[in-house]
Amino acid sequence: MNKTVTSKEAILSAGKEIIMKHGYNALNMREVAKHCGVAVGSVYNYFDSKGDLVIATVESIWIEVIDNCASFKNQKKFEQSVVVLFNSIKMCSDKYSSFFSMHSMGVANVDKDKGRKVMNKYFTVIKENLLDILNNDTDIKDNVFTNTFTKNEFIDFVFANIISNLTKQSDNCDFLVEIIRRIIY
How many domains would you assign to the chain? Predict the structure, then answer.
């Protein structure tokens, strides 16, 4: 166990693999060190605390989610982009056992503010892309959006429902898409 970890990426990869195989609750400094074949102190060379490790691993998964979701930005219709986005995020959620249902609780237990910032960073990227698609969808009815029914609030509603469906481990977002169709098309 005297071997040192060659990179932060190796530790994050180990963290992601632990989540994949054993679930979010199995992620800790000792398991990551064991997985990397190093002493626990070697992991502390890269991360000051379990909280920092957890948040960095969660962020690494979010980067993978965003990369996996890239194709949703190519959709012309908003409703199609929601389906592609949901399915792309679901693929990552399935890969990382219970990620969406467990990570917010786990991050809250280690460093709530830092975890929320990381999550919001990636949520913002996704929502901005959804807004761009909404703005460019030429099939939307005229005068749907008003001062009291704004595009930004609509995006927040849609995204919250996507995350809610993922947290409940739903297989699809068909009901949400039907609501979208009835409202904006």
Answer: 1
